[in-house]
Structures are given as C-alpha cells and as structure tokens.
Amino acid sequence: DNEPDFIVSAIIHKVLNNSAARTKSIVLAVKLGIPGSEVKMNRVLKKYGNKSMAEDFLNSGSEILAEGGRSWARAHGLTVARGKGSHRSTWGRF
C-alpha cells in the first residue's frame, strides 16, 4: 500500500513550497509518526530547518529524528542538552 508514502510526500511538498505552513506541516508529520518517514524529514530539516524545527525533532520521541536534530544543531554551532524544549508534538501521538 502506497498511502503512507503519498501522505509523507504531500507533507514534504507542503514544507518545501509553503514556508508559512512549514512548522504546522512538520508538527503534523511528527504526530502522524509514519514509519520510514524520518529519513525524509531529517533531509528537510538539514536543508530548510531552523532552531525550532530542530527542537521539535529532538523532543519528538523518535531517536531517528532526535539524531537529525542533534546533527542540525552541530552543523549550526549550537549545543544540545537534555531538558526542557519544544513539546509541540510527539512521534505517532495526537
């Protein structure tokens, strides 16, 4: 079934083509928690991300997204520490 791939592609398209909806789209993608989407999401973070998006990934509950958030932070000269951060979304949970 290609439905999850279609959903992930639609969300990524929204992120790439509508900067105003970028945060909402990423939060939705995290909440959906579609297995296998994390690699694509980390690519989007790397290319179009910001500190807020990296924090969302770090605190999402997905280790794959958290590693993407740490990688983004290192690439931008930021230090990452455990503790309070963005809790707008949790992997696979609405």
Descriptive overview:
It is built from 5 helices and no strands. The chain has helices at residues 3-17, 22-32, 38-48, 51-58, 63-75. The chain is globular. The two termini are 23 Å apart.
Output the keywords.
mainly alpha; about 60% helix
Main sheet specs: none
Q: Based on CA inertia axes, which overall geometry fits?
A: globular
Strand fraction: under 5%
| Residues in helix, % | 55-70%
How far the N terminus sits from the C terminus, by CA atoms, comes to 23 Å
Radius of gyration: 12 Å
SS-based class: mainly alpha
What's the total helix number? 5
What is the number of E strands? 0
Instruction: Give the low-pLDDT segments.
Output: none
Order of helices and strands: HHHHH
Instruction: Please state the average pLDDT score.
Output: 89
